[in-house]
Amino acid sequence: MALSKKIQGFITQSSWIRKMFEAGIQLKEQYGAENVFDFSLGNPNVPPPDRFQQVLRETAADDRPGVHAYMPNAGLSETRSAIARHLSHIHEMPITTDHIITTCGAGGALNVVFKTLLDPDDEVIIPTPFFVEYRFYIDNHDGIPVLVSTNDDFSLDIAAVEQAITDKTKIVLINSPNNPTGAVYDADQIDALSRLLSDKSAALGREIYLVSDEPYRDIVYDGMIVPSVLSRYQNSIIATSYSKSLSIPGERIGYIALNPALSDRGAVTAGMVLCNRILGFVNAPALMQRVVARLQGVSVASTVYQKKRDLLYAGLTDIGYDVEKPVGAFYLFPRTPIDDDVAFVQVLQKYNILAVPGSGFGGPGHIRLSYCVDDTTITGAMSGFERAFHEFR
Asked: Which residues contact 373 (CB under 8 A, 6 or more apart)?
């Protein structure tokens, strides 16, 4: 077979979302799209803000000479400056253009970070459950993912992180607000993690980097505030995108933000700018760079998603599902009424409900439900959720 054994294995590991997508196509053809309740994909269904549409039209109409020319590999200076000013306000610290690299989304940002920092067999600690692509991104650059459990409410288990740190640990990767749980690591947890990494870095005599993947930062509820990692830990890096905050995932626009006090920041920045180019990303899309430069602080209304969260959460808990109420992102991660989450997903398909097994995210015994869907999808699915639940009660 021409396909490499590694990729064959990766296809198997990442197949659940793909399987749900394919099952959805079949069910929609058989029963009609309106009769299939698809919670499998985290694809924002809230339109971009009106301001985005206005700025996009104005930017596309710009015909100044050189507007489509090559640019520095770190990105357009005006875009990076705009991002830096915004982050300086959020993180209450001086961030400048030199601390920002624009990227092809958060996925591009993470690959650039790993390519720059990882030597073969360096370890990256990841709290579970976690975004399924992390393992593949790390493997792209010869790193080793090390999975550590979180607490029952999906908060950070600092003791588990400490136990996982070895002399090969290079990065701790966190995702808050989290996909798939919707958990947000609060200030106390980030403070505790920062103290741990500072102590361990000193003991090892080298840096352990804290990389925070933050595409859902602006989608939080109930007064939750996502704490700043940059203001709490010296060797911290943010990777993020505008996919969720502006509802433009297909535009693949994001950035890396480096802590101004990062050790050897000049060398790390130079490495990331080089890796942005040699990985094939080269630059973030020029049109979108110019658009987001004018949209700092603009985002979709999280209240829309909060209403969907409340609708789905209330429906499931009324039935009897055990669910942690998320305070960010747009996912619920209910516990399944049987231990075998894959089998329960198959039961849900009998009622035309598409969910993703938690096993694919390192969280067996759960399912991930994406509630960035029409309200009618949520209400229409409730009878099926109830019938599936009572098959095991």
From this structure: 38, 39, 45, 308
Please indicate, yes or no, whether residues 152 and 99 belong to a single structural domain of this protein: yes
Residue 230: Cβ-neighbour burial (10 angstroms; 0-12, 13-18, 19+)? buried
Total domains in the chain come to: 2
Q: How do residues 235-278 score in pLDDT, each as one tens digit?
A: 999 999 999 999 999 999 999 999 999 999 999 999 999 999 99
Q: Which CATH number fits the domain that encloses residue 41?
A: 3.90.1150.10
268 and 230 part of one domain: yes
What tokens does 110 get? 């993470």
Long-range pairs for 223-229 at CB < 8 Å and ≥24 separation? 224/184, 224/327, 224/328, 226/176, 226/177, 226/184, 226/328, 227/185, 227/186, 227/187, 227/190, 228/90, 228/91, 228/92, 229/174, 229/190, 229/194
Assess whether 353 and 256 both reside in one domain. Answer: no
